[in-house]
Amino acid sequence: MQWYTDVIKKYAEFSGRARRKEYWMFVLFNVIISIVISIVDRIAGLTYGAANTGVLSTIYSLAVLLPSLAVGARRLHDTGRSGWWLLINLVPCVGWIVFLVFAIQEGNAGDNQYGPDPKAAERFGPGGEPGYPGYPPAPQA
């Protein structure tokens, strides 16, 4: 749940980079919450229109729209692409497939034009030494 709340805290932060884990955990929790809200909408009789869209579902979708766009742009930044590549989703049929491929790819190791590597804190310790946490210690010279 921390990954979800971290993205919400960065509500409209389009700069920087987002790891795959941050992006996909946000997507997972977003889907779970959407399903639960949709069920509540149906039970409470708050659906409308031919598609049986729920009032609460619509409100939730609008509330997470900006954070979803922001984390998507940061995810693209991690792979070295501009956030404008989010617009590829507007291309019918193939756009979302192209974006999916981009979102699945591993991010660039090291710093890139969009900021420092978000995985670097896990690969290196606070002083920049290898072997922190979960990595073997650096060989002794």
List keywords for this structure.
mainly alpha
Describe the protein's architecture and organization.
A hairpin with a 4-residue loop joins strand 1 (47-48) and strand 2 (53-54). The chain is elongated, with a radius of gyration of 19 Å. Helix 1 (2-9) crosses helix 2 (20-44) and helix 2 runs antiparallel to helix 4 (65-78). It has a two-stranded antiparallel sheet. The chain has helices spanning 2-9, 20-44, 55-63, 65-78, 95-104, 120-123; strands at residues 47-48, 53-54. It is mainly α.
How is this fold's topology laid out?
Elements: H1 2-9, H2 20-44, E1 47-48, E2 53-54, H3 55-63, H4 65-78, H5 95-104, H6 120-123
Terminal-residue CA separation? 42 Å
Largest sheet: 2 strands, antiparallel
Shape: elongated
Strand content: under 5%
Order of H and E elements: HHEEHHHH
Share of helical residues: 40-55%
**How many beta-strand runs?**
2
Mean pLDDT: 86
Low-confidence stretches: none
Structural class by SSE content: mainly alpha
